Fold this sequence. Notes:
The chain is an alpha/beta fold. Helix content is about 30%, strand content about 30%. A four-stranded mixed sheet has the order 1-2-3-4. Strands 5-6-7 form a three-stranded mixed sheet. Strand 1 (about 10) and strand 2 form a beta hairpin. Helix 1 packs across helix 2. The longest helix has 23 residues, at about 45-65. The model has no long low-confidence stretch (mean pLDDT about 95).
Amino acid sequence: MKKIYEAVIKNTGGRDGYVISPDETFKYKITAPGVKTNNSTNPEQLFAAGYSSCFNGALQLVMKLHNNVHPSTITAKVSLFEDDKTGFTIQVVLEVKIEDIDHETATKFVAEADQVCPYSKAIKNNVKVDIIVL
């Protein structure tokens, strides 16, 4: 396996702190879900942003490999749950929309993208993920 990229982000203060990249081009205040603060985010929003972007990239790659590329939109809904056994867990719903393509082909491409996407691979068998093809 050959590393092609590494992201580095430092957190201080947990869910009441900051995340920042070494070059300071990425810096956000972190708050707990439900806390409204200007220019802040939370781990669930960051996960949703990363997963939706990664999955859409994987989907675009799959469509390119099939010479059948269409605009696509991924909406990731990441929910935080209290879990009696381990404290907390997340669940994800991905809503996938591919323009100008039949549902059967879209479903096939989405299934392939799920096998390619690094986020999907990382959370497989650990996080409940529902993928809905719109």
